[in-house]
Design a protein that fits this description.
The termini are far apart. Strands 1, 2, 3, 4, 5, 6 and 7 form a seven-stranded mixed beta sheet that branches. The longest helix is centred in the first third of the chain and has 20 residues. Helix 2 runs antiparallel to helix 3. A hairpin with a 2-residue loop joins strand 4 and strand 5. The protein is 38% helix and 43% strand. It is an alpha+beta fold and 157 residues long. The chain has five helices and seven strands, in the order αααββααβββββ. The chain has one domain: Nuclear Transport Factor 2, Chain: A.
Amino acid sequence: MHRRHALVALVFFAMTATPLLAQDAATEKTLIANERAVIDAFAKGNRAAFEKFVSRDGFGVDPMMGRMTNAETLKTFEQMTKDMKITSWTMTEEKVLWADANTAILNYTWTGKGSYQGQPIPSPTFASTVWTKRGGNWVAIFHQETNKIAAPAPAKK
C-alpha cells in the first residue's frame, strides 16, 4: 500500500513539475531580446530603457565594478555610461536555464570593443542574468560577468 502511495505521489510530482521546467521558446526569445535591450541601453546611456528591464532591488557583479546593487548602478548610471565608450558588441551562444515557470537564467558570451575610463573593456566576457516575471513583466534581478582569460602555457619539463 505504501508503495502505491509513493508511486502515485511520484507520478503526480512528475506531471506537475515538468511544465514548470519546460522550455518556452517564445519566452526565451523575449528574454534574449530584453538582454540585448539592456546592453544597448547601457552602451547608449539610455537610463529609461535600462530601468524598464532591470529591477531596482537586484544587483550585479563584474570584474570592473565589483558587486553593486541596481539602485547604486542607477545612482551612478549617467557618469558610468559617460565614462564608457562601446563601439561594437555582440551576444552569442545564448542559453536559457529555467529555474521555475517565472524564473530563468540567461547565459551568453559578450564580445565587444570599447573602453571604460580610457581602459579597454575586456572581451570576450561570459555573462549570466537571472530574469524573473513580476506583474506580468520580465525583469533582470541579477547579472554577473566573468572575463575570459587565456589558459596558462604548459609547464616546461
